[in-house]
Every structure is written in C-alpha cells, then in structure tokens.
C-alpha cells in the first residue's frame, strides 16, 4: 500500500509517499481501508520531533514513522474477538491517542475496535475524518471526560463545567478544529456563546450559532466582555492570561494548548484552571457523532489534499487561520 512516512524529524519536506506493507490486524482490531485522514497538531508536532513537548515528556522516536490519528473508511477485515463491526461497515475514529502510533496517513490501517464508531450517515468520509480528535477534545472538555485519568499537565482529573441555559461560554480560536466544535456543543447545551476569531470567520461562526462575535484583530475581548462563566482557549501560549479578566469569580479557564497561569493570580480572581489530554474513545465518538445525524453538528472543512501531497497539507497548517479542518483524501 501507499503511506506517508518520514525517516527523520524536520519540516514538511521530510514527508515521503512510500510503498509499505499492508498492516496485519491483531486481537481486538479491524483492518480499515482509509478513505480520508484528518490533519491535527500532533501530526506536525511528531514530524518536528516533538519539540513542542517538555524534554522529560518526549518519547523516543523509532523511524520511519507514519503519522496521523484521525481517519474515516470502510472495514476490510475483523479479528475473531471483535464484535459490533463487520466487513463493509463505514467507520471513523481517533486511533491510539494519546500516543503517536495511529498511522492513519495510509491506504490501510489496523485500528483498535474500541477506538472506532460507525460513521454518521449524514456526513461523508472527508467530513468524518476531520471530526474525531477535535470533536472528542471539545466533548471531553465541556460535556463528559469519559475516564478517571489525571491530566499529565496538572495531575488532576478534569471535571467538565456545568453548562445550562444562561451559562456564558467564550471560545477563543473559535474557527479552528476544536473551537468550532466547542461553539456548537456549548450552544447544544443551551449556553450563550461568544466567539473570538479574525473577522473573516464571522459569517461561518454565526452560522454555527455564535451569539456574539469578537474580531481579535480590532478588539480585545477583555475590553468588551466580563462575567463569563467558561473560557475555552484553543490558542493558548504565553498571552493566555489576558482572558482571565473576562471570567467572573467562580469561573473556569480551559486551555487546550500549552499555557501557564500564576496560581496566586487565579486564586485571587477565584478562577479554576483545568485541562485534559484527549483520549481515544469509540463509545463517546458514537454518542457525540449521533448529533451529526440529528442536524445539531456540522464540520467545517478548510481544505483537502491528496494523501501524496501531505507535505502541502502541513504547509497549509503552518500558515494558520484555519477554518475547520484540513483533510487528506485517499484514492480508492
């Protein structure tokens, strides 16, 4: 089969379109013919050698590596001990995460059945491939964590906030993968949603149900917003603390990307900071995926690239300002 591999860490140019063996399935696995694969930040973190992670948290890398965690496709074979899936089923999932052995940038992938769900009938493979990591991240932050594993960043087990009608949720980086799902899930729970993004994304986010829109290129959220119950910050970085002042006392800050907060400052403001490491969960994906068929969720597709042009897809990601997800398509 064809797959994207890299033999050393580096820029998008290290991604090679190679011929490799079709994987064999083991206990608890199914073989999936991949129709589309989603492009996610961990894919380019891996390609770069995981430089984004603290040195003490970096696993050793054994080259060559096939990147990718998200995919949608059709079941080709099923291990004898697997139930619930059959040859010909359309499935999607986030494979073996947290970890870097998803191997979805390929024509075939051996997938743990527990990481898979049946693809919602109302979305195609391209849309489905873009959903798993971003959707599960938003779901596990805002609705149901689904496990009792402490966050590796805080050592605490995250408790999703109570979101009910009347709750105000601000989403920073609202047009991106996690952000646009967070907007929709917060609206589904009845929240008043404030979206922060660049102005070109306003119509897209209004269509998703945003109640208030802030163009960060012209307006600081802290200058016009206060009394927010929940901030989910998908951008993170050293400037994340600027959103603390929009929260009311007793509010919760949910940083998706690496961010540091002064415990004394958050204690003084009465704010809780909590985060997660998203984890594969096929049962959760089936539950939240049903919202697509009910018309409660949609996925934005920023752009698509053939699998062979994965390097160009990573170059697109590096330019930022993504609306929804970047997808790799696999010829059938």
Attribute tags:
single chain, 332 residues, alpha/beta, Quinone Oxidoreductase, Chain A, domain 1, Rossmann fold, 2 domains, seven-stranded mixed sheet, six-stranded parallel sheet
- What general form does the structure show? globular
Total helical elements: 9
CATH level-two architecture of the largest domain: Alpha-Beta Complex
Give the CATH level 1 class of the largest domain.
Alpha Beta
Write down the domain tally: 2
Main sheet makeup? 7 strands, mixed
* Beta-strand content: 25-35%
| Helicity, as a percent range | 10-25%
Which sequence of SSEs, written as H and E, runs from N to C?
A: EEEHEEEEHHEHEHEHEEHEHEHE
Mean pLDDT: 96
| SS content category | alpha/beta
Distance between the termini: 12 Å
The rounded Rg comes to: 19 Å
Oligomer: single chain
- Give the uncertain stretches in residue-range form: none
CATH topology of the largest domain: Quinone Oxidoreductase, Chain A, domain 1
Give the full name of the CATH homologous superfamily of the largest domain. Medium-chain alcohol dehydrogenases, catalytic domain
Query: Number of DSSP strands?
Result: 15
Quick summary:
The protein is an alpha/beta fold.
């Amino acid at each position: 089969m064809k797959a994207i591999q890299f033999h050393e860490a580096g820029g998008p140019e290290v991604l090679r379109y190679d011929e490799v063996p079709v994987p064999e399935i083991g206990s608890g696995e199914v073989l999936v013919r991949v129709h589309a694969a989603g492009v996610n930040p961990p894919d380019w973190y891996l390609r770069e050698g995981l430089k984004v992670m603290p040195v003490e948290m970096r696993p050793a890398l054994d080259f060559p590596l096939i990147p990718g965690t998200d995919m949608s496709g059709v079941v080709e074979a099923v291990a004898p001990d697997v139930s619930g899936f059959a040859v010909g089923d359309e499935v999607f999932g986030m494979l073996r995460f947290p970890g870097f052995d998803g191997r979805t940038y390929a024509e075939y992938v051996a997938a743990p059945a527990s990481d898979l769900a049946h693809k919602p009938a109302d979305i195609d493979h391209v849309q489905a491939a873009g959903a798993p990591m971003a959707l599960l991240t938003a779901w596990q932050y805002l609705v149901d964590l689904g496990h009792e594993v402490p966050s590796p960043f805080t050592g605490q087990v995250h408790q999703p906030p109570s979101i009910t009608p009347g709750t105000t949720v601000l989403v920073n980086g609202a047009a991106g993968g996690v952000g646009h799902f967070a907007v929709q899930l917060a609206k589904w729970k009845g929240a008043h949603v404030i979206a922060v993004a660049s102005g070109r994304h306003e119509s897209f986010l209004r269509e998703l149900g945003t109640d208030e829109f802030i163009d960060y290129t012209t307006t600081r959220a802290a200058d016009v917003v206060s009394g927010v119950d929940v901030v989910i910050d998908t951008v993170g970085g050293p400037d994340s603390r600027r959103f603390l002042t929009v929260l009311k006392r007793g509010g919760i800050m949910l940083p998706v990307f690496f961010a540091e907060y002064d415990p004394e400052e958050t204690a003084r403001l009465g704010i809780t900071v909590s985060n997660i490491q998203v984890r594969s969960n096929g049962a959760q994906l089936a539950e939240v995926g049903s919202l697509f068929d009910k018309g409660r969720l949609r996925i934005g597709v920023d752009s698509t690239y053939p699998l062979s042009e994965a390097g160009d897809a990573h170059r697109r990601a590096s330019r930022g300002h993504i609306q929804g997800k970047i997808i790799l398509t696999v010829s059938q």
